[in-house]
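Before a colleague's protein record goes any further, I have to sign it off. Would you go through it and say whether the fold makes sense for this chain? Take the sequence as given and treat only the tokens as open to question. The record follows directly below this note.
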Amino acid sequence: MRNGFDLAKAAENCSAETIAFLQDVMEVPLGQLEDFSDSDPAFRKAFMLFTRLSLLVTRRRPELGVHCILIHVLPKIGDLPISKITKVVVNRLTNPLIVEGKIVQGKRVFSVMKQFLAWCVFQGYLENSPVGDIPLNKVGGSNPKPRERTLTDAEIWVFWHLWDYHDVCEVTRWSARLTLAAARRPDEILRARVTEFDLNNNIWNQGNRNKSHRDHRLPISPIMRLCIEKLIAAGNGSEWLAPSNKKPGQPMSKVAISQSLRRILESPEMADIDPFTPRDLRRTARSCLAGLDVPSDVSRKILNQSLEGIDRVYDRHDYLDQMQEALYKYSVFLFNVVEREGVEDLSHKYKGDRLDLSNSRLGLGVVNFRLQQVYS
């Protein structure tokens, strides 16, 4: 079984039905899973064994593959003998998803089914896979274009201050701001423990609790420290940096920031702001670092991305000093933006362009809300 697979963590991203299925697969003795009455088992039984021996071993997030099979495949062919699974059968599983525009789901179903049928050949249940020669790009549809949205200087100002004009808790407010200030994914903040933050030495010891599973340490800049201290104070002694206000002893929901931001941006007074998501904040931070002449390899280290080319193998330097300098420059930039009383002097889509906030409460400016008054 795949080392490090965390069922509790998987439960945050998928249905209770998926977790129950995975729990059964992990707890049932292997001999019982292999106890078929014949050599042509039904898809339902064979898929359980496949999940145990293949998905849990080869996939970084096996719960995603299981989830899509439980929804889109088992209800249709759960009792079908695996020898009866043909190209037509597989295509009739993916075609409706492609027609509905669910391209990612359709390709995920095909990918898992292709892996499953190849595994059946390896196990001796089938002579050949009916879809073994079909590449994934033949399934149909186009993958969604990668997001390119970044926030302008004026939009950074809006993002920072909009939380104070809407009904959100202190933890959500400062967690969202830390997402931008630290160039982190939201879940890296919403699942952080207070013990990760060494405020004496200004180091965030994140460990391998990230998408790449690489050990990561990040210098804490002044604006990051402001956010972290506000969160610790709001947590009232919680072990979590962003504790839930609904479930005592638990961290905040991983979708708390995105749901709150979407609700705010959908309000009529924010109609002049092009929609954006928490994921766009990380791209914004990376673009700001480039604008501050931070070298690409240092920016990649800040975002915990692997270096390019041969450097990813041979360059083992920790870059802490360089990251500290870059994050300090980024901190000064952010403070310079968000300390303004309004967006009148901040560029928007191009130099000289201005963002119209006349229909928003933010258009009144941050009167009596200057950082040196409130954040001291």
Q: What stands out?
A: The radius of gyration is 25 Å.
